[in-house]
């Protein structure tokens, strides 16, 4: 099974104040790659609460209104925890390229979470491109993904 993202849908993106500059660069990168982008904020470096951006991104992905999501905060943990509260969202916190690839290939992740205070902007952009380019492998991984929802 080779699952790629549906390019007819936009990418949902959001961040807190710590991730704002990264988000701006990633939005430009995505648009250069031909993606439509649905930006859920933040829209400056003024302090905000990350759940206010993470919930709308996760809902857009869960409701299939977005091909996938990208969330950015200082550690990446807050947005990942928040996004994973939404059914049908598999948000993966990644801090190196191999993790972004494995999140897609083995976990069929549909939201990439990035820790702005712990990775360079260049590395974040590379992870985004790897996340997009890597298909879900299915097979034995599909059985595991099917068990994520739990009860």
Features:
alpha/beta, 151 residues, single chain, Ribose 5-phosphate Isomerase B, Chain: A, five-stranded parallel sheet, 5 strands, 6 helices
Short description:
This protein has 151 residues and is α/β, with parallel strands linked by helices. It is built from six helices and five strands. A five-stranded parallel beta sheet has the order 2-1-3-5-4, sandwiched between helices.
Q: Which architecture name does CATH use?
A: 3-Layer(aba) Sandwich
Q: At the fourth CATH level, what is the homologous superfamily?
A: Sugar-phosphate isomerase, RpiB/LacA/LacB
Strand order of the largest sheet: 2-1-3-5-4
Mean pLDDT across all amino acids: 95
Query: What oligomerization state is this entry in?
Result: single chain
Q: How would you describe this protein?
A:
The protein has about 150 residues and is α/β, with parallel strands linked by helices. It has a single domain, classed as Sugar-phosphate isomerase, RpiB/LacA/LacB (Ribose 5-phosphate Isomerase B, Chain: A, 3-Layer(aba) Sandwich). The chain is built from 6 helices and 5 strands. The protein has a 5-stranded parallel beta sheet with strand order 2-1-3-5-4, sandwiched between helices. Helix 1 crosses helix 5 and helix 2 packs across helix 3.
């Amino acid at each position: 099974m080779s699952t790629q993202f549906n390019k007819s849908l936009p990418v949902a993106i959001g961040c807190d104040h710590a991730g704002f500059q990264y988000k701006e660069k990633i939005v430009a990168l995505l648009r250069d790659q031909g993606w439509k982008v649905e930006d859920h904020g933040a829209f400056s470096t003024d302090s905000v609460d990350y759940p206010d951006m993470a919930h709308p991104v996760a809902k857009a992905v869960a409701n299939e209104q977005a091909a996938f999501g990208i969330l950015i905060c200082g550690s990446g943990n807050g947005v990942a925890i928040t996004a994973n509260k939404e059914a049908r969202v598999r948000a993966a916190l990644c801090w190196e390229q191999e993790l972004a690839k494995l999140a897609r290939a083995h976990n069929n992740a549909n939201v990439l979470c990035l820790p702005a205070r712990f990775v360079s902007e260049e590395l974040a952009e590379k992870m985004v491109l790897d996340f997009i380019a890597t298909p879900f492998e299915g097979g034995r991984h599909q059985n595991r993904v099917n068990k994520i929802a739990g009860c």
